Amino acid sequence: MSQIPGLRKVLIANRGEIALRIAKTLARLGIASALVAHAEDAKSPAARAVDEVCPIDGPTPVAAHLDGAQTIAVAKRIGADAIHPGYGFLSENADFAAAVGAAGLRFIGPTPASMRLLGDKIESRRFVAGLGVPLTPSATEADDPKTFAVRAAKIGFPLLIKASAGGGGKGMQIVRTKQELAPAIALARSAAGRYFKDDRIYAERYVESPRHVEVQILADAHGQVLHLGERDCSIQRRFQKLIEETPAPGLAPELRRAICETAVRIARAADYQNAGTVEFVLAPTGEFYFLEMNTRLQVEHPVTEQVTGIDLVEQQLRVVMGEKLRIRQESIAAKGVAIECRLCAEDADHDFRPAVGELLVFRPAEGPGIRFDGGIEQGQRITTAFDPMLAKLIVHAEDRASAIELAIRALRETVVLGCTTNADFLARVLTHPDFRAGRVETGFIPAHAADLARRALGEDERRIVLAAAALADRDFNERVAAVPEPHASIGAWRN
Asked: Which of 68, 180, 231, 312 has fewest C-beta within 10 Å?
């Protein structure tokens, strides 16, 4: 029986690890779950975890998930009360959220009005500027396309060209000279149209060696707006996060309080409801600037859950059904340190190029303090049809040094054979002296490229590693020891 009145069945409009993670909370709360699934995911762990699987189709697997009308039709057909979009795909599409409401369903996220105000990078900057929140100088192309390049250059270099509807670092261009500006504008505009079907772009001053610090927000429809602390997401490659942690290392208490209170002020002014994240750029000098607000659940939300003990998906469900938050700001006490590592199918030693293959062996690390959010399994075929992130490894310990050691051990104990991943690279980042010391910034990976490069194994070392891996794998040993047919059926009989 559902523990949230009025919420009997939820359709999960997503896939992979986030779909499985949402399904687990729904099961715990006694709420029936359904999943939209392209044929490529029909037998995935997420599909087996839900009560009902609903096929969707399209020109590509991604196109199927972006078809909002198809998703709403499925929800209506199966009698769902609400749709949870997870992150990515339709999660920040205000038109989709409005259509869900118009169909008599609940959209598990903020209101369409809040999404339009805060989800649009240009509009959110204008709104936040009116609140007196610090922003980096910027120029918007749509204000006057003919003078955009000139206005952008007047801001001063380096510049960052970004998509208004963007996310995940897609299409961003750093511009350091006037000669680079026109090509970068064209590239950013093209990428914005390709990735987001919205080619609006803007330019902002690029802060050198910044940290990326964000604040988890939770708000209800009754005026209560809370923050659940901050996360540091500075370890990135090509503007896409790889390692996140909470609390952010090395922040003075006054700075931490100022960043969190500013995030609450922005959310309250926007009449924001549900879970969201306010992101900031933190300069080496200590000044912080509003970056954007993500009007959805974040990929890195588990680290906040680990230190606060609060299930953010459960809170999303309760808020959307009109309940008052039972949590008070003064009762939120972060305990320990949590670190999340994004396990991706990519070759970090060859410019992070995507990797494909069949998971011949997949065995995630286990043990106290280790949480593994994944939607993959042994035997699964990894393709380029979706984002390369396979899973998330989250660790929780009493202090940062212990959390780092636990994360390194967990990465090294996670076995993935058949598809190249970035697990070893992530361990190298965590091992680096500057990371251990909390000296992190968004340019950490390129700045330490030489230190983070893989050391080539000698021939003897390579043979020892391969032999050890083979001998340690139970499936391998069982295959080696197995008697082939027809001899297995004959048994011990000899002629």
From this structure: 180
Instruction: Could you please state the CATH topology (level 3) that the domain comprising 137-205 is classified under.
Output: Dna Ligase; domain 1 (3.30.1490)
Domains 9-108 and 137-205 share a fold: no
Nearest 5°: the CA angle 38, 43, 48 is 110
Q: Which amino acid is at 285?
A: T
Beta bridge mates, 237: 240
296 classed as catalytic: yes
For the chain, the structural domain boundaries read 9-108, 137-205, 214-452, 457-495
Within 13 Å of residue 113, how many CA atoms lie on the same side as its CB?
A: 6
| Catalytic pick among 296, 371, 400, 428 | 296
Q: What is the pLDDT of residues 88-122, one digit of tens each?
A: 999 999 999 999 999 999 999 999 999 999 988 88
pLDDT per position as a tens digit, 113-149: 999 999 888 899 999 999 999 999 999 999 999 999 9
Strands 225-237, 211-219: pairing kind: antiparallel
CATH architecture of the domain covering 214-452: 2-Layer Sandwich (3.30)
Q: Give whole-number Cα distances, 280 to 161, 180, 188, 300, 345, in Å.
A: 17, 26, 21, 15, 28
- Give domain 9-108's CATH architecture: 3-Layer(aba) Sandwich (3.40)
